[in-house]
Design brief:
The protein is mostly beta strands. The chain has two domains: about 45 residues, N-terminal domain of TfIIb (Single Sheet); about 70 residues, SH3 Domains (SH3 type barrels, Roll), CATH 2.30.30. A three-stranded antiparallel sheet has the order 1-2-3. It has a three-stranded antiparallel sheet with strand order 9-6-13, with no helix packed on it. Strands 10-11-12 form a three-stranded antiparallel sheet, with no helix packed on it. Strand 7 and strand 8 form a beta hairpin. The termini are far apart.
């Protein structure tokens, strides 16, 4: 059975267990409320643009700076409007299609249009 509980926020080891409404680290003895973990995971699920506005699938965004495309000589120009974005997990949160192809972008380089 895979370990589904988060690692300890104090020592970062994964030897944690549930004890009532709290989570406990077996290595360092640190205890924290399990409810706080759910709130943090929910906040992480939201993708925000450079101005702090929440992005959703289908939104239109504008690039706030020129972006070089890795492995190519293509540059995505500042001010380019991208329609109908899709949110994805991972480091690059936004998946979109533009004239140059399909790209994965970081939300910090976008603002909601």
């Amino acid at each position: 059975m895979p370990h589904t509980l988060p690692p300890c926020p104090q020592c970062t080891l994964e030897n944690t267990y549930a004890d009532g409404a709290n989570l406990v680290c077996a290595d360092c003895g640190f205890e924290w409320p399990a409810q706080a973990v759910a709130v943090v995971e929910e906040a992480d699920a939201m993708v925000k643009d450079s101005n702090g506005q929440v992005l959703q699938d289908g939104d239109a965004v504008v690039l706030i700076k020129d972006l070089k495309v890795k492995g190519s000589s293509t540059v995505l120009k500042m001010g380019t409007k991208v329609k109908s974005i899709r949110l994805a997990g991972g480091d690059h949160e936004v998946n979109c299609k533009m004239d140059g192809g399909s790209f994965m972008l970081k939300a910090c380089f976008l603002k909601k249009a």
